[in-house]
Specification:
Length: 127
């Protein structure tokens, strides 16, 4: 299931065909994870949040990207990222793909927070 757009449909098909049991429970958990990944949590200020502090690269970028794709154009996302490689790679990928970083905060524990806006036009689209 390399295409993230087809993953939910494939899981739903498998879930429908699967008899009750451990595999069906596992499929339900995977669908719940995908739904949470796409929606993201919302902070007190109404900005969507995604906590990736314990997620290594490149998986952290993949999860950030999927969350950003689920947002409406112009919507904000607060990304919480871990120390080291994620702080180098995730901002670089955001910039390369046209997602503006509006604010950066670094914390004493080495983690960071990025406030990102989904562009009004699709990243990479001609203006």
């Amino acid at each position: 299931m390399s295409n993230p757009e087809t993953a939910p449909e494939a899981l739903l098909r498998e879930l429908a065909a699967c008899p009750e049991g451990p595999r069906k429970e596992e499929l339900r958990r995977e669908l719940a994870k995908l739904a949470a990944l796409r929606a993201g949590a919302t902070g007190e200020d109404g900005v969507r949040e995604r906590d990736l502090r314990k997620v290594p690269c490149p998986l952290g970028w993949a999860k950030a990207r999927m969350t950003l794709e689920a947002l409406a154009p112009g919507e904000l996302l607060r990304l919480k990222i871990g120390a080291g490689e994620p702080q180098e790679n995730i901002p670089r990928q955001l910039a390369a793909e046209g997602f503006p970083i509006l604010k950066r905060r670094k914390f004493e524990d080495g983690t960071a927070e990025l406030l990102v806006r989904k562009p009004e036009t699709a990243p990479g689209a001609a203006k």
